[in-house]
Amino acid sequence: MDTNRETLERLWSTDGTLTLSAEAEHELRTDDYVLEMPQSGERIAGRDRMRAMQREYPAPPSIQILRITGEGDHFVVLGRSDYGGDIYYVANMVEFRAGRIARETRIYGAPFDPPEWRAKYASSAADGAM
């Protein structure tokens, strides 16, 4: 099995609700790690800054990892985050370098009701399509 995939599966398990660990994640990041969040325009550079931000986070969401896909140094982690009742789906593009996480780009999206015209083409994600 791919060691980078094993790292992600150990860190962000797909068998239940995730508890984030600033310390565990810090150990797996490169010194020059970068997190980008395009929707807010934020860029956090450096694993120490990321750990400091995580430690100070006032109310971390509960997260359910839905799927991890990819191979080699490039993966996408799909998750569902619950911020006290506000739900967001997260697509997290993760890039490795030398066995450590070097870059993440996180895209957040709120759920929405599909348009009626599309109903005849689609099944519900609750039906197991995700």
Write a structural description.
The protein is of the alpha+beta class and 130 residues long. 19% of the residues lie in helices and 44% in strands. It has 3 helices and 7 strands; from the N terminus they run αβαββαββββ. The protein has a 7-stranded mixed sheet. β6 and β7 form a beta hairpin. The longest helix has 10 residues. The radius of gyration is 16 Å and the shape is globular. The relative contact order is 0.19. The model has no long low-confidence stretch (mean pLDDT 89).
Question: What is this structure's SSE topology?
Answer:
Elements lengths: L2 H9 L5 E2 L3 H6 L1 E9 L4 E4 L1 H10 L5 E10 L2 E10 L2 E12 L2 E10 L21
Parallel strand pairs: 2-7
Antiparallel strand pairs: 1-4, 2-3, 4-5, 5-6, 6-7
Strand order of the largest sheet: 1-4-5-6-7-2-3
Number of strands: 7
> End-to-end distance, in Å?
23 Å
Mean pLDDT: 89
What is the number of helical segments per DSSP (H or I, 4+ residues)?
3
The radius of gyration computed from the alpha-carbon positions, rounded to a whole number of angstroms, is: 16 Å
